[in-house]
């Protein structure tokens, strides 16, 4: 059985990936490495706790990473600091985990000749004008706006350089915004849902006209498996649903699904450097690897996500208090 190490497997996308892999790709023997930062939670792995060994540790820990990579055939690297607002407030952990962490992993992968898939974001390409047909492609120039996206861009560059200089067997993917169960309550969709469930008003940054391309986490993870199975080494693949929505439009959908008046939200000061629009051209992964998003009804996907947060208040209650305390200090 190929042995797969998943870094960041106790976070939102990583935990969904581990469960998806156990369910749909049982040929893999999966292990998780995760530092359990404020964003990681072992409860996210409860469905697979019997079959997935968990290693509590830091992706910057050279000896630990070397030991785990030495016995892996493939590494899927999700571990990162992931929230733009936090990066604006305190960039240091982003530089450490996203850059030093990826470097540490790459060196272990180089020593042990292991296959790597690096998970990244469309935010590395900067942003697009609000109106217009443009989309990011795999050859778009890097132009990150925030400390978060700058460190993700740097991590992508490290992976690309290790491919070219050392022949490391790696692929990369840059996905659009994800949603689904287990997403941390600091992020847009869970923040608004849990605000409403707690009787508080959602918070919309600035004009609300900024556009994101909302992609279900299982579609992202299916795409990662398509790349692991059939992707060309050294290549980058963009992933995204094609379903673009302004934040105001998405919030209107959440309010209506939760039977709230359309104006029952607060406008709060905008995020500094707020990227206007992200949109990915996914022609390459569709035509080369035959991947297609299966979640093509955002309203239905949101309804299922709302049902998950409604049923799992025990999971988000403590994190919610901490996240809102942080937002209060940021004035958002
Ligand atoms: P998340 O914040 O929910 O989870 C990140 C996980 O990484 C947590 O479990 C955390 O404990 C772990 N981690 C952080 N620093 C670590 C370290 N130094 N060592 C070991 N573990 C560490 O993030 P997410 O939304 O699941 O994102 C996962 C990956 O996907 C990230 O690389 C992110 O850049 C990328 N991505 C996210 C989105 C999105 O919409 N959420 C979209 C595209 C790409
Ligand atoms: O309360 C809010 N109100 C609001 O209007 C929050 C938390 C966000 N927003 C806006 C900012 C963005 O335009 O909603 C949009 C989405 O915000 P986030 O959920 O913070 O996501 P974003 O900044 O787009 O980044 C996400 O997608 C790309 C992930 O957090 C990244 O990890 C990923 O790389």
Automatic annotation (TrEMBL):
<comment type="similarity">
    <text>Belongs to the NAD(P)-dependent epimerase/dehydratase family. dTDP-glucose dehydratase subfamily.</text>
</comment>
<dbReference type="InterPro" id="IPR016040">
    <property type="entry name" value="NAD(P)-bd_dom"/>
</dbReference>
<feature type="domain" description="NAD(P)-binding">
    <location>
        <begin position="5"/>
        <end position="295"/>
    </location>
</feature>
<dbReference type="InterPro" id="IPR036291">
    <property type="entry name" value="NAD(P)-bd_dom_sf"/>
</dbReference>
<keyword id="KW-0520">NAD</keyword>
<protein>
    <recommendedName>
        <fullName>dTDP-glucose 4,6-dehydratase</fullName>
        <ecNumber>4.2.1.46</ecNumber>
    </recommendedName>
</protein>
<keyword id="KW-0456">Lyase</keyword>
<dbReference type="Pfam" id="PF16363">
    <property type="entry name" value="GDP_Man_Dehyd"/>
</dbReference>
<dbReference type="InterPro" id="IPR005888">
    <property type="entry name" value="dTDP_Gluc_deHydtase"/>
</dbReference>
